[in-house]
Amino acid sequence: MDILLIGGLWLDGSAWDDVVPALQALGHRPVPLTLPGQGDGSASATLDDQVATVLAAIDSASGRPLVVGHSAACTLAWLAVDARPEKVAKVALIGGFPSADGQPYADFFPLEDGVMPFPGWAPFEGPDSADLNEEARRGFVSAAIPVPEGVAKGVVRLTDERRFDVPVLLVCPEFTPSQAKEWIDAGEVPELPRAKHLDYVDIDSGHWPMVSQPVELARILAAAADEG
């Protein structure tokens, strides 16, 4: 199965370099995406531009793919599912939850000169980054790409109720499946309570398992693709 890999903020397709060979060894075709404004294009890129890139990958996939979104890109993956519900076999959400219609995509950190740079490790101290050694942190920072304002402040628009028919796998890194279920049951995650097929899987990692646990993440995604 084709597995489309969408990294979160500040990441381009190279974030999946250690996941790709592991997925290939398990018999799947990984397609890491480099998004407009995050390794492809300029600081003028918009959320619509990024959605269009994901939709183009779905449309050119062999069969119905597994769409994987990480962190903020869980919303990007969900937007793509909303636009192509009949063409996606399953969606896997890693370390994040899709935003609701009308919310900003990722207006989380200060903007500087029209972009949102990586804010440093202070906001991510604790479970998010505890499994990253100094070498991994330096590598992340050196590769981090500032996110264009038009992406970060783009408004989420969801229109097709068929998105709730697409099976969802929630991969839980810095939080547990039990915590995720509590948040969803409490109404803190607006979209997922309506998903008709929602499964959870734990992974013993921080917020970036593609860096710290790439082989285990590949195993989880391959299993999801096999089930799909």
UniProtKB/TrEMBL annotation:
Pfam families given in the database record: Abhydrolase_6
Domain AB hydrolase-1: 3-219
InterPro entries xref list: AB_hydrolase_1 (IPR000073), AB_hydrolase_fold (IPR029058)
Gene Ontology molecular function terms on file: catalytic activity
Gene3D superfamilies xref list: alpha/beta hydrolase (3.40.50.1820)
Protein name (database record): Pimeloyl-ACP methyl ester carboxylesterase
Protein's organism: Plantactinospora soyae
